[in-house]
Amino acid sequence: MLNGCNPVVALPLLLALAGCSSPARLPSQLTRVPGVKDSAAAASATEPARPADSGERGATNRFWAKVSDKDLHDLPLVSVPVVSDALAIPHATTNWISLEGWSQTNHFGPAQRLQSATNLSCELHTPGGVITVTSGSHVAHFDRISFWLGYAPHVADGQLLVRTLDVEKNVLPLAHRPDFATDTNHVVVIDPGHGGENTGARSVADNHFEKEFTLDWALRLEPLLASNGWNVVLTRTNDVDTSLSNRVALADHVNADLFVSLHFNSGARQDQAGIETYCLTPTGMPSTLTRDYEDDLTRVFPNNAFDGQNLQYAVRLHRALLEETGGSDRGVRRARFMVVLRGQNRPAILVEGGYLSNLHEAQSIADPEYRQKLAEAVAKALVFANVVTEHTLTNTTNQAP
Predict the structure, then answer these.
(1) What is the mean pLDDT of the chain?
(2) Domains, the chain, ordered by start
(3) How is residue 305 annotated by DSSP?
């Protein structure tokens, strides 16, 4: 379950599930974006980014890594512009662009229009898969997997306009086939959320705590990943409270290629259910989830250097979890208050494997067979392969015009 932390008080935090390999390179043909003027555009997202301060502190514990919270908070911060015009959209001169125009400019062909009584949707058939965006909705789809945009698209002059930053940070990474690792001996850090006095959420089915289920999930996952060629390191192997800063420090210490944080969710309403996957919010974009913590769009964190890969791996893992468990799709989402995500110098992702506050899902989570399915799903998603998954290729072939 996700918690946040402010500059003064350390709170239990949900952590991160991620991907690996060097930053994916973007092909040159995906770099041109036609500008579309929109007098109703929202305020500019191109203000200079200011580096993040690092006042967050995790609780002390018995973790082996002798790195103080202060040392971790003094890590240098990367400098990333709010909109990286040189990378993906060098010709964009406005905050909003025509998605259909962008598709044609990048040789994807005309977007397919789906008009309802109130909304316009456009389907883009890209090398990575089919991307569907709808006016008035923050929720978009990639081969039917939900992911959240920072800004809801809108229609002007008959065109579906998408925020330029969303094209760069959401559409473009998915349109491009990801460059996943192909060789073995990469290091993955698996992070079972919570531990010790930091119990996490309580199950409505059997009164057991989230910390127990996340540890069991991680211990089941470890041998599966090892058999796939990963060098696996766990942030904890027993019921101990490991500080958030030490979880990040461990990943740095072992020079991890990937950070995966495992959690279970809890909500105020008992009917809330489904799987959610999180990665860090790109600079300049509002978060999907804030938990009442400040969501400063100008802040830059080390993990923002991996914005594209974070999304690519999050979608890959999210898809595998849905396919393996049959759970409800609550989407790939963005948050910037999670300490274990934003401090990472590698792709990092956090997974919520279901709601302990929902009786049906809590009963499933209490079943060892379900937790085994969760472990197998993550392992399946992280099999070394430098190709698009067969599932994605099949979807793209079947849906292409």
Answers:
(1) 79
(2) 29-44+75-175 (3.30.457.10), 187-392 (3.40.630.40)
(3) G
